Structures are given as structure tokens and as C-alpha cells.
């Protein structure tokens, strides 16, 4: 999804209402967020957003100098660095070692990579945002959206299981180091 970020708008400050709505969306989607809310959004922080001019209608949110999340349709999706800092924020899905290089190249997660030896499929619903981990790796390598319920994937382990939306090395990841 983030191959190039050439079409970013100039930053705009989020209003108090916008920040309140963003926090509420985080709390609605991620139960663990309530525990870390003040650390992610400190008082008197400079919170701004950048719109990505593309077919995705994505908005990237920055708190002070750290990229925190992006919005896609009705979802608020945390930045991978935020997931590294707070690993309990997302449900963890683990792929086998053979899938790692494909995911780091931007491929979606296929069901066989989650249910084979080395993979681990945790309970999750279709449409839910999850962290993608590699076999033997400590930190998440990607963030994705479940394309099916975990029970359905176990019953019929074929095809796509997770749509990859952000991964190590993509343009959003690289933007956080500029």
C-alpha cells in the first residue's frame, strides 16, 4: 500500500475535536489502547495529519515528531513503530519462516503460512487489524487486515488470510526515519 509517498499534502493541525475522535476510534478498535493513551497522545502535543493523495484516501497522523497511525476508510491503523513499542496493542499472527521474505516484499499473508509448522493463527475476526510476526522474530514485521475469520481459515486453509497494509521497509516506515 505504501510504495511511494510522493503525494503527501502539507501537514495540518488536528483540532481538539479531531484528536478526541481519533482517540475514541483507537479505544473502540483496540481495547489495550486505554492503558497507553496518555503516552501516545501526551497533553500539549503537536498533533498533525498528512493526506495521501491517492485512491486509498489515507491520512497519516503524527504526534510531535513520531508517526502514530494512519486511517483507511473507517479503520485507524497503528504505525509499525507504535506496535513495536506496545506489542499488546494488536492481535499477533505468526507466519512460518518461508513467508517472511514475501511479506517484507509487500505480499499479502496466505493461509498456509499461518497454519503450517512455524505459523500461529490466533482468534480474530474478518476486518480486524492484526500484527504480523515471523517465526522466531520478536517484533512485528507488518500490519494487516484479516480477510476471513480465523475459524474459517482453519477449516479451509487456502488463499489470502491477511491483507498487508504496512510493513518494514515500505515508504511509511522509511518516512519515520526522515
**Separate helix tally:** 7
CATH class of the largest domain: Alpha Beta
Give the low-confidence spans. none
Q: What's the average pLDDT? A: 91
* Strand order in space, largest sheet: 1-2-3-4-5
Distance between the termini: 19 Å
Largest sheet: 5 strands, antiparallel
Please estimate the helix content: 25-40%
* Strand percentage: 25-35%
Compute the number of structural domains. Answer: 2
Going by CATH, the architecture of the largest domain would be: Roll
Measured on Cα atoms, how large is the radius of gyration?
Answer: 16 Å
Task: Please tell me what the overall shape is.
Answer: globular
Q: SSE order, as H and E? A: EHHEEEEHEHEHEEHEH
By secondary-structure content and strand pairing, the structural class works out as: alpha+beta
At the third CATH level, what is the topology name of the largest domain? Sulfate adenylyltransferase
The total beta strand count reads: 10
Amino acid at each position: 500500500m505504501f510504495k511511494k509517498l510522493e503525494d503527501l499534502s502539507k501537514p495540518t493541525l488536528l483540532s481538539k475535536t479531531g484528536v478526541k475522535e481519533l482517540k475514541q476510534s483507537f479505544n473502540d478498535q483496540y481495547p489495550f489502547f486505554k492503558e497507553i493513551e496518555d503516552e501516545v497522545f501526551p497533553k500539549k502535543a503537536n498533533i498533525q495529519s498528512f493526506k495521501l493523495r491517492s485512491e486509498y484516501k489515507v491520512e497519516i497522523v503524527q504526534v510531535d515528531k513520531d508517526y502514530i497511525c494512519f486511517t483507511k476508510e473507517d479503520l485507524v491503523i497503528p504505525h509499525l513503530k507504535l506496535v513495536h513499542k506496545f506489542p499488546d496493542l494488536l492481535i499477533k499472527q505468526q507466519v512460518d519462516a518461508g513467508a517472511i521474505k514475501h511479506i517484507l516484499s509487500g505480499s499479502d499473508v496466505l493461509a498456509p503460512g499461518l497454519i503450517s509448522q512455524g505459523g500461529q493463527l490466533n482468534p480474530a475476526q474478518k476486518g480486524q487489524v492484526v500484527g504480523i510476526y515471523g517465526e522466531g522474530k520478536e517484533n512485528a514485521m507488518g500490519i494487516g487486515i484479516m480477510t476471513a475469520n480465523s475459524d474459517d481459515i482453519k477449516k479451509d486453509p487456502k488463499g489470502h488470510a491477511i491483507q498487508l497494509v504496512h510493513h518494514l521497509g515500505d515508504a511509511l516506515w522509511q518516512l519515520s526515519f526522515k
